[in-house]
Design a protein that fits this description.
This protein has 14 helices and ten strands. It is of the alpha/beta class. It has two domains: about 90 residues, Arc Repressor Mutant, subunit A, CATH 1.10.10.10; about 190 residues, 3-Layer(aba) Sandwich (Rossmann fold). Helix 3 packs across helix 4 and helix 3 packs antiparallel against helix 6. The radius of gyration is 20 Å and the shape is globular. It comes from Reinekea marina.
Amino acid sequence: MNINDISGFFKAISDPTRLAILQILGSGAYGVLELCDMLDVKQSGMSHHLKVLSTAGWVEKRREGNTIFYRRALGDALSIQQQIFRELDLHPIDEAVRIQQQQIRSERLNSARRFFVEHVDEFELHQERIVLFEHYGPEALQLLDSLDRPKQQNVLEVGPGKGEFLRALAERFDDVTGIDISPVMLDQAKAQVGEYNNVKFIEGSTEFLAEQNQQFDIIIYNMVLHHVPTPEGEIAQCAQLLRPGGLLIVTDLCHHDQEWAREQCGDQWLGFEPEELHQWANKHGFAHNQSRFLALRNGFQVQTQVYSNA
């Protein structure tokens, strides 16, 4: 940034509406119409505010299917940008906005649930074009084993799919839980681990577990985070669910531009930049431990990120 850009950089956040936009984007990415509804601003006005913020480098936009989503910038211009974001996060969001955020999350969650109910038979066929368990599972398990966690620990896998990884967890730990919003997917996982009596199954979301004040030593997401309505919100839930010293392990796609995955695989997000995951985790009190990357066919790449809870 040169000296001529500094004035515009700070002027972009001098408007209360634009500050409100940045505060809202602290909880996830949203489209223009969603932001319009939350702040009761006409589309033309919202588009103007977002253009100002984007030009100044405060927000980034990314196309997900037919929708453009806006999020906070991942950089730290003038070494002050992330500090301002942290300051905004200290202030409570307006109650009316919070209610609308919850409604948006519920709508996205219901959309994901419907997809897996209606497309369970062909899901694996399409998923094979991206990645199957056999492509990432062995390395993810090798990484888990290298962490040398006690067998007595309580482990949660979110969205266990067909249950291959859940079965491996049951062989390694005494107390394992699989949770999924789709009863159809849970039935498949149950069939995979039927002979193990140390596995519990719950139909629901991590929000339900947080409401029940449940606690775990390890939480694992395998190729799931790109399906959830609000990925950062999911990480925030994990901060409540993990005991001190616990581990959050995320295996997911790196960011890609293959939009067919949304329609055919039910992906809500086209992967994630590693720095994006790191910032969300750091914001909610996690420390980054290590990363692994696995190149795959058809231009997709899988990442595994390990975070520890203070």
